Amino acid sequence: MIIGLTGGIASGKSLLADDMRSRGLPIIDADAIAREVVEPGKPVYEKIKAFFGARVFHEDGTLDRKALGRIIFADEEKRQWLNSTMHPAISEEMMAKKDALFEQGHHTLVFDIPLLIENNRMNTVDRVLLAYVDEDVQLKRLMERDGSSEEEALDRIRSQMPLKEKKDYADAIVDNNGSRDESSEQLAYILAEWNIDPRKS
């Protein structure tokens, strides 16, 4: 089985991924792969350089993700270009990792994909698990985490599908408004409901 773990920025998705990893479930992290495909010399890196120019790179030549983020979160057209450039490369790498894990004998794994629903990737997973928080909690946590202004934080939140809308696509939801322990209890219950024993994953 492939579980598609998704959510929104500052929704506690990484918390759930860490919890699932600690239970023994293999995680394929789309964000981690996204960082790999933009390393210097990779084809996606060269395309970004040609499109955005030097303003989104550090002096050492590595990608300045914050500078790039400021541009794309305020410009829908540029965000669409970046997504259409990066997603095929990310998808290819995720599928290769999935095949390798199944060949190693795993029965259950997790695709950690922030834009699972927006990019219509639900057909790549068997179940969708949503990390959910209320919008005021999401805003507060994002400002605290990144030290961003309310306007910057709202730009980032509004660049994504609202979590309330994502509920309609989820097979199960973990409400992350409370404590870590409460979230962990909800996750354990969902895994049991789905007959997933991480020790036999």
From TrEMBL:
InterPro entries: Depp_CoAkinase (IPR001977), P-loop_NTPase (IPR027417). This is Dephospho-CoA kinase. It is an enzyme of class 2 (transferase). Keywords: ATP-binding, Coenzyme A biosynthesis, Cytoplasm, Kinase, Nucleotide-binding, Transferase. Pfam families: CoaE. GO terms for molecular function: ATP binding; dephospho-CoA kinase activity. Its main location: cytoplasm. Gene3D superfamilies: P-loop containing nucleotide triphosphate hydrolases (3.40.50.300). Pathway: Cofactor biosynthesis; coenzyme A biosynthesis; CoA from (R)-pantothenate: step 5/5. One of its GO terms (biological process) is coenzyme A biosynthetic process. Catalyzes the phosphorylation of the 3'-hydroxyl group of dephosphocoenzyme A to form coenzyme A. It catalyses: 3'-dephospho-CoA + ATP = ADP + CoA + H(+). Transmembrane segments: none annotated. ATP binds at residues 10-15. One of its GO terms (cellular component) is cytoplasm. Belongs to the CoaE family. It comes from Natribacillus halophilus. It is found in: Cytoplasm. Its EC number is 2.7.1.24.
